[in-house]
Amino acid sequence: MKTLFHLLAALIALTAAAPVNAQVLESETVHFQPPRVPEKIVFAGQTYRFDRPDLYERMDRECITFTYSHTNSTLMLKRAERVFSQVVPILRKNGVPEDLKYLMAIESNLDPTAVSSAGARGLWQFMKATGRSYGLEVNDEVDERYHIAKATEAACKYLKEAYEKYGDWMTVAASYNAGQGGISQRIEAQQQDRAMDLLLPAETSRYMFRILTAKYFFEHPEAFGYQLEAFSSYQYKAPRKTVEVSEPIPSLVEFAKEHGTSYFLLREANLWLRSDHLTNKSGKTYRIVIP
Question: What is the pTM of this model?
Answer without folding.
Answer: 0.87
